[in-house]
Design brief:
Elements lengths: L12 E2 L2 E2 H33 L36 E9 L4 E9 L5 E10 L3 H12 L1
Antiparallel strand pairs: 1-2, 3-4, 4-5
């Protein structure tokens, strides 16, 4: 039994599907395409404004440049113990470019963290790579 006058109206159907529903679905797809295009245009404008302050930098081989690096936070970390019966070597080397002087140091700790042995040496080197090599030879 129909409950209102609209229930008595025969809707146009094409192959068992409502023509109005088909048109509505097509309109929704078109609206989505328009919205996507508008968003892309707006993003292009935002990018242009943001890129005004950034200039393109092209470097050639041999150019001298100044690099600004952020300071890494020197986080202190407690010594982590190794497995029982093992030793842990901490070694490091530094090199001063102006004086060509290098310093190397090695510390050896046991599995309880007790200092077993240590070594420090200061000498002249040709490069920082040579200073690191001295550290490795001293640690072995």
């Amino acid at each position: 039994m129909p409950q209102c006058a609209l229930d008595l109206v025969k809707l146009l159907k094409e192959d068992g599907k409502s023509v109005a529903a088909k048109h509505m679905a097509e309109q929704v797809v078109e609206v989505h395409k328009e919205v996507k295009l508008k968003l892309e245009e707006a993003n292009k404008k935002y990018k242009e404004v943001a890129d005004e302050d950034n200039r393109k930098q092209v470097f050639e081989l041999g150019d001298k440049v100044m690099v600004f690096q952020r300071h890494e936070r020197n986080r202190s970390q407690r010594w982590l113990p190794t497995g029982a019966g093992y030793f842990k070597n901490n070694d490091d080397g530094s090199y001063d470019l102006k004086t060509t002087k290098a310093a190397v140091g090695v510390i050896c700790r046991n599995s309880e963290g007790e200092l077993m042995d240590g070594f420090m040496e200061s000498s002249y080197c040709s490069s920082s790579l040579a200073a690191e090599g001295k550290v490795l030879s001293a640690a072995c």
